[in-house]
Amino acid sequence: MPHHHDHDCSHEHDHDHDDHDMLSTGAQDNLYQYIDRANVVTLNADDNCKGSDVIKPWHERTSEEKFVESDADDQLIIRIPFTGSVKLRSILLKTGPADMTPSKVLLFANEDNLDFQDVADKKSTQEFDVAQGREVGEYAVKAAKFPNVSSLTLFFPSSQGAETVRIYYVGLLGTWTERKSNPIITVYEAQANLADHKKIQGTEGNFSTFQS
């Protein structure tokens, strides 16, 4: 049966070459486990592609089995939320092949719900030219610009010649910390006095109990 690629966002063949420690300490600083994969959003992606498909664990970074490809033209937006606060050090990209490689990537920190109109009007936090090649490329960001990132939006504005762009892998390196915000309810609970609760016992009136 002839093998053809029909925009199904998956490949049959398997690449099992591992580029040995190609990236400095990537496995340790990989933020994969801190990405809220269920809420990764793509705009202008082919219907059969899921944005979370390119957010792969470290050992699958060279795999070409799953990818995201743009749909109507060669522009693509991928929004990646984190489960905490991230100090970003670099992004990793595997794209292509050849002229399906994006010309560049624009990064927007903490800009939720950007669409194509927004990214055209806004100044990106940082941008990079994307190199062609089948390996994973590392792009080191200016850490001072990404000290406290809760979501990262990647905008790929054009391809290097093809009608669509294709992304196999997006990886993020850096350090993660828990968000330091206490929901207000815990403040009330902390100040509640047991004596107050006792007074209400047995009264039939319409009082409000503590909601937690």
Could you explain the architecture of this structure?
The chain is α+β, with helices and mostly antiparallel strands and 212 residues long. It has one domain: Jelly Rolls (Sandwich). The chain has four helices and eight strands, in the order αββββαββββαα. The chain has helices at 26-29, 116-121, 184-191, 194-200, and strands at residues 41-43, 68-69, 76-95, 104-109, 126-129, 137-140, 149-156, 166-177. Strands 1, 2, 3, 4, 5, 6, 7 and 8 form an eight-stranded antiparallel sheet that branches. It is globular and about 45 Å long. Residues 1-5 and 12-24 have low confidence and may be disordered. Belongs to the PITHD1 family. Residues 1-22 have a biased composition (Basic and acidic residues). It comes from Lentinula raphanica. Residues 1-23 are annotated as: Disordered. Residues 20-192 form the PITH domain.
The CATH class label is Mainly Beta
Helix content: 10-25%
CATH architecture, please? Answer: Sandwich
User: What is the overall shape?
Assistant: globular
User: Structural class from helices and strands?
Assistant: alpha+beta
Arithmetic mean of pLDDT: 83
Listing every helix as H and every strand as E from the N terminus to the C terminus, the arrangement reads: HEEEEHEEEEHH
Cα separation of the termini:
60 Å
Largest sheet: 8 strands, antiparallel
* Proportion of strand residues: 25-35%
Number of domains: 1
The name CATH uses for the topology is Jelly Rolls
Nutshell version of this structure?
The chain has 212 residues and is an alpha+beta fold. It is built from four helices and eight strands.
